[in-house]
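**Polypeptide and fold**
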Amino acid sequence: MYGLNLQVNGSLAKSYYREEKALEAAIDALISRTQDVKNSLTSFLMKLETEYETINWPNVLDNFALLSGQVNTLMKILKNDKTPLLRNRVLLPLALSPERDEELAKLTENRVQAFSHEVVPDYLRTKLDPEVESAEQQILAKANLIPADAAQKQITSLNKICTNVIDLVKSARDTWESETGQRASVTQTSSMTDTNTLISAISLGKGLKPSTGPMNQASSQQGPVPQVQPSRSVSSGKAPSAVKTNIKAANTVHPYGR
């Protein structure tokens, strides 16, 4: 009997040890992921405060996407099968003191300087804040006033709208992915280098050379083209006498000649 008790106690001790190890690993992972979320929030808030004039909407969406991914990672750790159920753990304050606790201030980065009666209800709360709880109760009371048939119709209508929106988003995503794939598969049929060369040749004449075609070669082989002198035709009127007078005047000896 004594040996059986030792076996049972040993098994319980091993099980407790494994559970404690799993709890420590889960808490370490949660602390690490929470620190990542905290750093991202701090960086984003700093950008909003210092770069509000230059920050753009895509940058804001990138920060939201980063935070969303980190929160999803945190939730995956909580939902992991190897993570112990934290709601089964009870955290009780062993001592409360209004005096400053340096270790607590260091762990909380000076957010909590003393584990006193003032901060315990907020940090060890297991229920919603009283104001939030009151608002939730009002919403639930208002929802209970709606008849069951009307509520079911509203639920059906809302589900239909959500389903249509999801289908539209999926269709738009599929179309976008298809168009992106087609654009990526189309072979390029143009060259920017050739295009720039043509533009330079048309606008600036860059790269153009004098033409040496067959017509120019034939004209160069035939030699210079003889000049055709206009024929003098004698016609009636004063023109012939004027011509003769000019010729005669040219043939006369100049009085100051040699």
